[in-house]
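Could you help me review a protein record that somebody else here produced? What it holds is a sequence and that sequence's fold in token form. I have pasted the whole thing underneath without changing anything:
=====
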Amino acid sequence: MTDLAADLAPTPGQTIGPFFHYALPYAHDRELVPPGRAGAVRLHGHVYDGAGNGVPDALVEIRHADPSGAVPAVEGSIRREGGAFTGWGRSTTDRTGRYWFSTLEPGPTRAGGAACFAVTVFARGLLNRLFTRVYVPGDDAALAAEPLLAGLPADERTRLVAVREPGGDLWFDVHLQGERETVFLSFPRHRDCT
């Protein structure tokens, strides 16, 4: 008997998109909670390519804890109206590259930890989806102690923290390449796919 795994070489993923606006959006996909609900916050920004142009056909997904820091374990993320908070949403970008979510601000999932959104970005020309985090500003001690942020140079650290707007909303731009490239994360099982 031969070891097939030893004989097989990893192959690259298939180029992603651009088909997101056709097949993946669904009603209220970006509304984890209804806009205007008590406690709702808007997380929004743009997805930019390496030349600084908005990517009109990207898709951004978020997953995060609720305000108490508990990660929801609720089925039925696609059913929004009248359902429980699932902590998961999906937003396509518009023709300028803009995305937005109406959600609850996450709490830290561990004592002393920094609250964040887990973010996945899909866009044309990518062989695989990209992973990053968006940290919630405000708790400077927690942000300074966050292991991922502490391991980055100062300029890259700031690129992972959202900007709080005067009304309380959170602004975060994703840069796929270039001088302001967002810090993207890799996971062991994705290592051989890039």
The mean pLDDT is 86. The first strand starts at residue 40 and ends at 48. The chain has one domain: 11-185.
